[in-house]
TrEMBL record:
Protein name listed in UniProt: Helix-turn-helix transcriptional regulator
UniProt keyword annotation of Transcription present: yes
Single annotated GO MF: DNA-binding transcription factor activity
Superkingdom of origin organism: Bacteria
Domain HTH araC/xylS-type: 198-296
InterPro entries with a match to the protein in the record: AraC-bd (IPR003313), Homeodomain-like_sf (IPR009057), HTH-like (IPR037923), HTH_AraC (IPR018060), RmlC-like_jellyroll (IPR014710), Tscrpt_reg_AraC-type_HTH (IPR020449)
Keywords: DNA-binding, Transcription, Transcription regulation
Length: 300
């Protein structure tokens, strides 16, 4: 199982000349996901198109749950808070990631004004889920399959063809009158709660190496500490302080794997003021000492 505790994904996909990436994910023995595919709750500024080739998945998008099966399609808008979990060790899915800014036109025609610019400025959103059997799925499926194949093969001119296919996909959704204004879309979700959650997480990720109190986290919203604990645990399943502790330990794991820094320095760099407390909490969460963890992961 792959649990990346970092919620705000800052990975850059593609290259400057070709900022589109196509990814393929298998599960099972010999893959990075031997038990089942799992990506923990996160968000990013890219647009993401997913096509389910095999098996079924549980998607959580902006705190709403969906089940997707073979042939189904998911489109994630920039900023959508999402988590994906496969339902077995025998699943396959393909992903296209791109910055919507690549679709921008300098000429202010109808498409730019009513479709592309609102998407780029996050004033309009695409629906997330497209199940097999719907008319819009029938229109999108061959175009998305063509996009996946084109971006995978990367033949001469693949990038231009991929951009045209993405525009065609968005055009199909737009002409079907399925694009939503942000106001209408957010009215159907608890967007304020999601934004508060993102604010608290972002504060943790920027300040985990410094002293952080419960009141510091509450002040980011702002709210009182009791409300913060209730709403945060309702989403994350753990208290904000426990989440911060888990995040610090994950950061310590990275330093243990990638540096030769002393355990004391790593503890301080990850926001622990007491090395004994760090070692105790590390052992509770990782089931081994920091030294044992380093030895195990540097002998691979």
């Amino acid at each position: 199982m792959n649990q990346d505790i970092s919620l705000k994904e800052n990975i850059h996909y593609g290259t400057k000349e070709h900022p589109i990436s196509r990814l393929h994910f298998d599960t099972g023995a010999g893959t990075p996901y031997p038990e089942y595919f799992f990506v923990a709750r996160h968000w990013h500024h890219y647009m993401e198109i997913l096509y389910i080739e095999k098996g079924s998945f549980e998607f959580e998008i902006n705190l709403q749950s969906f089940t997707l099966s073979q042939g189904d399609i998911c489109i994630l808008n920039p900023g959508d808070l999402h988590q994906i979990k496969g339902n077995s060790s025998d699943t396959k899915h393909n992903v296209i990631l791109f910055d919507p800014c690549i679709l921008d036109f300098s000429y202010e025609d109808e498409m730019q004004e009513k479709c592309i610019r609102p998407l780029i400025n996050q004033l309009a959103l695409l629906p997330n889920i497209y199940h097999c059997g719907s008319s819009i799925h029938a229109a999108l499926s061959p175009k998305i399959k063509a996009l996946m194949d084109t971006a995978a093969e990367m033949d001469y001119g693949w990038y231009m063809t991929s951009k045209l296919l993405i525009l065609d996909i968005i055009s199909s959704i737009y002409t079907a009158n399925l694009m939503q204004s942000v106001q209408n879309a957010h009215a159907q979700t608890n967007q304020k709660k999601i934004q508060n959650y993102k604010s608290v997480i972002s504060y943790m990720e920027h300040n985990y190496n410094q002293p952080v109190t419960l009141q510091d986290l509450a002040d980011t919203i702002p709210c009182n500490s009791q409300y913060l604990c209730r709403f945060f645990k309702d989403i994350a399943g753990v208290s904000p302080i426990q989440y911060l502790l888990n995040y610090r330990i994950q950061k310590a794991c990275i330093l243990l794997e990638t540096t030769n820094n002393p355990v004391l320095d790593i503890a301080l760099d990850c926001g622990f003021e007491n090395v004994s407390y760090f070692i105790r909490k590390f052992k509770e969460i990782m089931c081994c000492t920091p030294k044992a963890y380093r030895n195990k992961h540097t002998q691979r």
